[in-house]
Amino acid sequence: MRSLGRWLLWLLLAGAALQLFFLARIALMAVVDPQSTAFQRSEAWRIAVKSARRDGDWRWRQQWVDGGQISPHLWRAVVASEDAGFFQHRGIEWEAIQQARQKNERRQELAERRAAQNPDRPAREAKVVGGSTITQQLAKNLLLSGERTLLRKGQELVLSLMLELVLDKRRILEIYLNSVEWGEGVFGAEAAAQRYFNKPASRLTAYEAARLAVMLPSPKFFETRPGSAYLARRAGTIAARMGEVRLP
């Protein structure tokens, strides 16, 4: 028992040290722009391996710009599309997480019923619906791996609270806009504006910003479908909602 207690103590100390490390990293981001995220490094490795197999077909676009060099239209569009309550909540919307969990359970039950009714057809995994805020998305992309476990999800929630405690909303959104994925090897608002509209992020129109915001849940999918009717329709809806977003 004494050995077990010592082991548990070391485990708790290691966990506390890890949280202090994460807190220090986040505090540094208040004054230093992060050069890359955990997700970007993972993608860079994947694309490098892929390009090596295709004789050097390498593509990577990323450029950090200050928040003032990103069109206010894009700030509003991303909030309207991804997290309408961003400026009101404290990083986590518990009600949205609960609703997402219930929706995922219903989808899983439906998928299981369909599989039972059609045993000869290959079963398809139910699509998982997320309830993540912009802060949670940033926490996950900045510092965590892409694995889906309860432990990683719990760490994501802790990091989200740290981000909201140490950084203000504008800084959180500035880092998010500069690091989020907008296609394969396309990261940040400046790279996205150049990739899709051949102009700097500061000159994006309201509709262009809305189109970029709509891409965020599935950037690689929409990158190959620029003429998507859904993309155009949804962009129109987001453009209409942008007027309701008040930036700090």
Tags for this model:
mainly alpha; 248 residues; two-stranded parallel sheet; globular; Penicillin binding protein transpeptidase fold
Identify the overall geometry: globular
For this structure, the CATH topology of the domain at 62-89 and 169-248 is Penicillin binding protein transpeptidase fold
DSSP summary, beta strand count = 2
CATH architecture of the domain at 62-89 and 169-248: Orthogonal Bundle
Question: Runs with pLDDT <50, length 5+?
Answer: 120-129
Domain Glycosyl transferase family: 61-242
GO molecular function, one term: pentosyltransferase activity
Subcellular location: Cell inner membrane
Protein name: Biosynthetic peptidoglycan transglycosylase
Give your account of this protein's structure:
The protein is an all-alpha fold. It has a domain at 62-89 and 169-248: Penicillin binding protein transpeptidase fold (Orthogonal Bundle), CATH 1.10.3810.10. Helix content is 62%, strand content 2%. It has helices spanning 2-28, 38-53, 72-82, 94-117, 134-143, 150-166, 169-179, 189-197, 206-215, 219-223, 229-241; strands spanning 61-62, 186-187. A two-stranded parallel sheet has the order 1-2. The radius of gyration is 20 Å and the shape is globular.
